[in-house]
Automatic annotation (TrEMBL):
<comment type="function">
    <text>Catalyzes the reduction of dihydromonapterin to tetrahydromonapterin. Also has lower activity with dihydrofolate.</text>
</comment>
<protein>
    <recommendedName>
        <fullName>Dihydromonapterin reductase</fullName>
        <ecNumber>1.5.1.3</ecNumber>
        <ecNumber>1.5.1.50</ecNumber>
    </recommendedName>
</protein>
<keyword id="KW-0521">NADP</keyword>
<dbReference type="InterPro" id="IPR002347">
    <property type="entry name" value="SDR_fam"/>
</dbReference>
<comment type="similarity">
    <text>Belongs to the short-chain dehydrogenases/reductases (SDR) family. FolM subfamily.</text>
</comment>
<keyword id="KW-0560">Oxidoreductase</keyword>
<dbReference type="Pfam" id="PF13561">
    <property type="entry name" value="adh_short_C2"/>
</dbReference>
<dbReference type="InterPro" id="IPR036291">
    <property type="entry name" value="NAD(P)-bd_dom_sf"/>
</dbReference>
<dbReference type="InterPro" id="IPR020904">
    <property type="entry name" value="Sc_DH/Rdtase_CS"/>
</dbReference>
<keyword id="KW-0554">One-carbon metabolism</keyword>
Length: 242
C-alpha cells in the first residue's frame, strides 16, 4: 500500500536516507528542507514533493501546512526529523538559544501535528485493518532522558518533544499512533576528529556508529505495529548501562 509520508529535514544525513528509502519503497514523500543541496534535486528526480521551510519561521510553517491541506486528502506518516544540534556556547544569548531549540524541536512539530492531524485521521479511517492507524514519529535523542552538559537547551527541547509524544498519543488514539525514537551515536559529523570519535564510541556498551538503517528499520516497525503508541524507542548501544 502506498503511504504518503511527510519528513522534515530531508536535505542530508538521516532525513535524506529516510526520504530515499521510502521513495524506493514506492511511497509518496513530502520533504521539507532549509538548505537547497544537490540532494534536494536528487529527491525531486525520484518523485518527492519538496518544500523549502525554515522551522524557525511560523509563517513558513503555515505556508507548508496550507499547501499540504490544499493538495492532499490524507497523510499516513509524519516524521519530525529536522533538528539543530546547537551547543550552549554558540554566540547567541541563552534566551535566544533556548527559544531557537524550542521553536525547531517543539513549536514547529506542535504546529504541524495540530494542523495536519485531520489528514492523518482521514487516512486511518480509509485503511483496512491490515494497515491500521496513521503515524507521527518524533525523533528525539538519548540526552532527552540523560541531559547534556554542553547542549542543555537542545536536550531540554528534545525532552519536551518526547512529552508531546505522550500528549498527542492520548489525543489522537485510536486513529494515529505517536512514538519517539531516541537515538545516540547514529552518524558522526564531517568535522568530528578521531579523538572525538573514540570518546563518543566509548560511551556505549555496543561501541559503534550505528548508521541510518537503525532508524529506517525502527520506523518501518513502528508503522507496521497495531499496538504501540506513546512510547520512546532508544537506539543508543546500551549507553544507559555504561
Ligand atoms: N546523527 C546522530 O548521531 C543523531 C541524530 N539525532 C537526531 O536524529 C535526527 C537526524 O539527525 P541528523 O541527520 O544527524 O541531523 P542533521 O543535524 O545532520 O540534519 C538535520 C536536518 O534538519 C535541518 N534543519 C536544521 N535546522 C533547521 C531549521 N531551522 N529549519 C528547517 N530545517 C532545519 C537541516 O537542514 P540544513 O542542512 O539546512 O541545516 C538538516 O536537513 C535529528 O532530529 C537529530 O537530533 C539524535 C541523536 C544522534
Ligand atoms: N540535529 C542533530 N542532532 C544530533 C546530532 C547531529 O549531528 N545533528 N548528533 C548527535 C551526536 O551523534 C551524539 O548523539 C553523539 O555524540 C546528537 N544529536
Amino acid at each position: 500500500m502506498e503511504r504518503t509520508i511527510l519528513i522534515t529535514g530531508v536535505g542530508k544525513r538521516i532525513g535524506y536516507a529516510l526520504a530515499k528509502y521510502y521513495l524506493a519503497q514506492g511511497h509518496h514523500v513530502i520533504g521539507t528542507y532549509r538548505t537547497h543541496y544537490d540532494s534536494i534535486e536528487q529527491l525531486g528526480k525520484l518523485g518527492a514533493s519538496l518544500h523549502s521551510c525554515d522551522l524557525t519561521d511560523p509563517a513558513a510553517i503555515d505556508e507548508l501546512i496550507a499547501h499540504i491541506n490544499e493538495h492532499y486528502d490524507r497523510l499516513d506518516t509524519i516524521i519530525h526529523n529536522a533538528s539543530d544540534w546547537l551547543p550552549d556556547t554558540n554566540g547567541l544569548s541563552p534566551s535566544d538559544t533556548m527559544a531557537r531549540m524550542m521553536q525547531i524541536h517543539v513549536s514547529a512539530p506542535y504546529q504541524i501535528n495540530l494542523a495536519l492531524a485531520p489528514l492523518l485521521v482521514a487516512a486511518a479511517k480509509t485503511n483496512d485493518d491490515s494497515i491500521g492507524a496513521s503515524n507521527i514519529i518524533h525523533i528525539t535523542d538519548y540526552v532527552a532522558e540523560k541531559g547534556s552538559k554542553k547542549h542543555i537547551a537542545y536536550a531540554a527541547s528534545k525532552a519536551a518533544l518526547h512529552n508531546m509524544t505522550l500528549s498527542f498519543a492520548s489525543l489522537l488514539a485510536p486513529h494515529v499512533k505517536v512514538n519517539s525514537i531516541a537515538p545516540a551515536m547514529i552518524l558522526f559529523n564531517e568535522h568530528d576528529d578521531d579523538a572525538y570519535k573514540v570518546k563518543a564510541l566509548a560511551k556505549a556498551i555496543l561501541p559503534r556508529e550505528a548508521g541510518n538503517n537503525e532508524i529506517i528499520n525502527l520506523i518501518d516497525y513502528l508503522q507496521s505495529s497495531h499496538y504501540v503508541t506513546g512510547r520512546s524507542y532508544a537506539v543508543d548501544g546500551g549507553r544507559h548501562l555504561k
